[in-house]
Hints:
By secondary structure, the protein is an all-alpha fold. It has helices at about 25-40, 45-80.
Amino acid sequence: MASEVSPSPPVSSIWSSKPWWCQPWSILLTGVAVPAASWCLLQRWWITAPLTTAVLLWWWLFLVVVPSAWRTEQAEVGEP
């Protein structure tokens, strides 16, 4: 006799399944704090500029690409 596992209810947002440190507000806050701290402490544009570029890429990946892919996957799973 095989026990059936009921599917988990659909999650309305990718963010509801993430911990506090992976929420949009924490990603944005950290992304602003890192270049600001770099500039305030070092005042070297050649260090702050690559950090800022990395943060922008990080934001694009985690705030644009991942949620978009998640929505696409959820739409595909919802289709019969």
